[in-house]
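PT: before anyone asks, these are the final sequences, not the draft ones from last week. 568 residues across everything. Please model them as a single complex and drop the result in this thread when it's through.
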Amino acid sequence: MTGAVSQTSRPRRLSGSWLTGLLMAPSGLWYFFLLVLPLLIVLIYSVGERGPVGGYQSAFTFANYANLPARWTAFKNTMTLAPLGTLICLLAGYPLAYFLALKAGPRWRLTLLILVIVPFWTSFLIRTYAWIFILGGRGIPALLDLIGISDVRLINTPIAVLTGIVYAYLPLMVFPIYVSLEKLDKRLLEASNDLYADAWATFRQVTVPLSAPGVVTGCMLVFILLMGEYLIPQMLGGGKVFFIGNALVDLFLQSLNWPFGSAVAVALVAIMLLTVGSYLKFSRAGNYGRDANLI
Amino acid sequence: MFRAYAIFIYLFLYGPIALIVLFSFNSGTSAADFRGFSLHWYGKLLGNELMLDALKTSLIVAFVSSSLAAVMGTMAALALQNVKGWMRTIFDALTYIAIMVPGIVIGIATLIALVSTFDVINTVMIALWPDSQPPRLSMGYGSIIAAHTLFSMALVIVIVRARIAGMDRSLIEASMDLYADPWATFRQVTLPQLAPGILAGFLLSFTFSFDDFVVAFFVAGSKNTLPIYVFSSIRRGVTPEINAIGTAVMVFSLTMLCLAQIMLRRKRQPAKA
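LR: through. Structure below.
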């Protein structure tokens, strides 16, 4: 049948290729001028020099890259809190996804799932701001003070940043895990049960391996977004717990050192690609990742 | 046990939101203790020129960028059916890059690309312009819209392509068999089937653009979008007015989201009929 279709459409091929080109042109141009070219310029700037009043002066030097350790704290914070945040999201999100996919009644399942995702699409800024409110001096610390635990400081600590991270990105973790658990063939669980596996063995040997693709997707989504995070450390870390994103804002908008900022940005993308690449490779190589090409 | 855990998570997710909504109706001036119910802060919002101006900017940017994205993204998704080989690989890679590269890097890259381009153009204009006051290109509506359209377009391409993949091919063949020309087939068969997907893409893009802070922060120049305005007010101090803005914004995004959901569901109806 496909042969017949392609034969009948053959006379139209010539005009078809014109039409295809015409349809692709706007998006192609957009990608070229607003994605490829800007990213190339960042790459070029990263080997340039800072101009006398900020901005850029053409040069070819790796001094900016050699200077990266000057922002070591930002890299260190990002590389510890982003994986840690991802892990907490996974640990907190998996049981919820499990509950939604396997335990919740079918009547409520969809509503409950939508309720998880909705916050993700409502104002990120406002939701993070809510935690300034809750963790700030007159929120939880004031309540703790009432029961005799005084002088607790939560805002502007790594704990506050982690809370904000889990709050913001939990939905993104739950959704893909839910999808893979929901697709799981329930008969496998029954079979495992029939073969006298206890609940824990079934979970470990059947459920977890089969939900691995969802776990991989969820972790990747959360981790990628966390690597470039700016708002959460800015608002809940109060300049004390800062990420690479905060360093970038400082370098581009305050100290106007664009070449160094570009080098930091290139390093950020490189670290991201390396971590995600090796994570995917690792999870594919492992037993669990048989279907890791979900995305 | 699972049920208790789920309840805990839902409290965690919705508690802070509920708090914002509750305190937006606070009659007291302090952000932290509740004095009684009042619409005072909403009234104050309506008289806040800066906020209204930022809201207008955000709405214009979101509308224009998601319209552009819906049109260009749909065009690309349709054309991609006939594209194979290296062109296809590159285009797919660019779509994923546009979605995956952190917003902050996109913001920076767009900023320096546009500033460098504008510098060159402005210098040329000064040299060529007969007057002493040539028009100057600068950051503003155009740059925010251009940057938002990039992400939104990639989003629309992914969504619409999924629709195309799930589309009933036999209808298109039937239409051709009945001697409809390609344009008529597109207008009367393909487009109605894709419309819910395109609209959902538009609404999701709108929500993204309306909510985006970090990209706009870099490329907005002297313009304020609503998130930029809210961010700088939070910096100046936490006031109940921010709660009122937050509540209004959340209600608005929620409405857009519901509309997008309804549109995405709708796709199954024509198939059933």
